[in-house]
Design brief:
The protein is of the alpha+beta class. The protein contains 15 helices and 23 strands. Strand 17 and strand 18 form a beta hairpin.
Length: 620
Amino acid sequence: MGMDRNTVIGFILIGIMMVTMFVVNSRSRQQYEKEQKRINDSIAATKPKKIIDTLHTANVLVDSPAISAKDSSGFSLANNPGQSVTLENDVLKVVFSTKGAQPKQVTLKKFKRFDGSLVVLQEGNYNKLSYPILTGINQTAASNDINFTAEPVITKADGSQVLNFKMGDSSTSRIITHQYIMKKDDYMIDLAINIQGADKLFSQNALNLVWQTETPQVEKDHKYELTQMELCYLENKDYDFKRMLESGNKSFSEPLNWVAVKQQFFISGLIANNNFSTVGASWQVSKDTNSHIAQTAINAKADFTAGASNVSVPLHLYYGPSDYNILKKYGNQMQNIVPYGSGVFAFVKYINRYFLLPVFDFLRSKVASMGLVILLLTLFIRLITSPILYKSYLSGAKMRVLKPEVDQLKLKFKDPKTGQLDQQAFGMEQMKLWKSAGVNPLGGCIPALLQIPIFMSLYYFFQCNIDLRGQSFLWATDLAAYDSIYKLPFNIPFYGDHVSLFTITATLTSLLISVYSMNQMQDNSNPVMKYMPYFFPIILLGVFNNMPSALTWYYTISNTITLILQIVIQKYIIDHDKILAVMNEKKKRPVTKSKLQERIEAMQETQKKMQEMKSKTSKK
């Protein structure tokens, strides 16, 4: 690339963007490590009771005073793990327990962990779906401590399966039914809590639901997976999220349609058809890198009609991938969970959703190798952006053609005694020269800036696209994670404890572009401008070493194509003699000035006169 000063500034801005992203991620990890040192060695804080206590709401469950065969209300209290009942389709397997009529184990059949085993999103005693019920005067029991009776599974004509759990006493008309419906090839499970005698079983006309979920480690990098943890929610029809980098809590006063715990590529979510009126959330992150990522407790209040005897609380449970196309079909904004852009770069999510994702899906349907899909996607993007690059190269060529005249202007406005350049006078004449030759001084900078949205959209796209997960290419075993050709016996600050070959190839190709561009630069006398472009490849080496190999593979291809295009366009396409002839022809034409340019020149002329007056006054 023929890099004039403005082009260099454009690439420097790209580097600043990347530094900003690195600093944000780095601070997040530092906060996480600081929090881990602060947490007491005792693991008591991660136990279910502790987490519920931190909610500080009035909806805390009260433990049943005694677990016996049957209490005075006729509800059967469980003193055993309960019996298991399984619902299963092609993508999901859920094992329910009659104790509490709740999911006990959730397995995703299409996805595997880093160790090759199937992804299990829920397993263990911490996980819970429960609520308190009135069993007598001043007596309560948690639903997860009560035995339900499981009815036979019903399979409908459309392939959906229905499972009913019942508990209660028909003689007193107090019956609770949990009805689960698992649709064919669906990750969403419908749950209807149907209640007879609700006015006798619940106080304040509300069901105070406690949902606890333990997030397992699924990917190979525990720390990086933690940085992707988010508590996502739809509050008063507005989507938002809170990062779960460290233990914390959050309360919601507005109606909440759903709340979900997102890890890097998977989601566990609780959805209410009629919204939760109030919700409190609390979570504890694990300091044990060989254990789970976090434990989360959600305390949600579902209101029903005052004084009603028979009520139904319709809910849904989502256990599945963070897949934009899958989540979008539910029509409740859950597709926003997929972080295709956030913060300052939230706007790039539209580029990813409506441009990159459709193209990526089309290529993926035609090509088996995901590495080749990324190659073809890169070629397509470079084809789209080639006009922008050509204008940038053309601007650089024009600047080089004008360099002899610019050098003459420098000599003209340089004080022969002091050797200092009259910057203001030189700047005015340089602008006139550029204007007469038809050169846009921002011609090199603007094209570079226009590439930032594409650069950042791909940065997000390759980090959260679940289709890349588990896909191998060349030496990379998983394109959704970093590739490693050598494990270091120690950790290098800013770099890591492994060597990523794709990161090295991306860095080297970026460095070659910088070297070639600096050789083509028309003015490299400024030492800062001369060496600044070399900093960007060094930043790449540290920032991208832990990034998905799909991203670094993309940058390797993109940089290689860019370098080839620079050489071909500048050596064989751009005719410098023709450019010079066209600019000389434009110089002969009368120069038309815009109103903005007239104002700028008037201001410059005024400042010049003021400086001349000051210099005359100082001589007197």
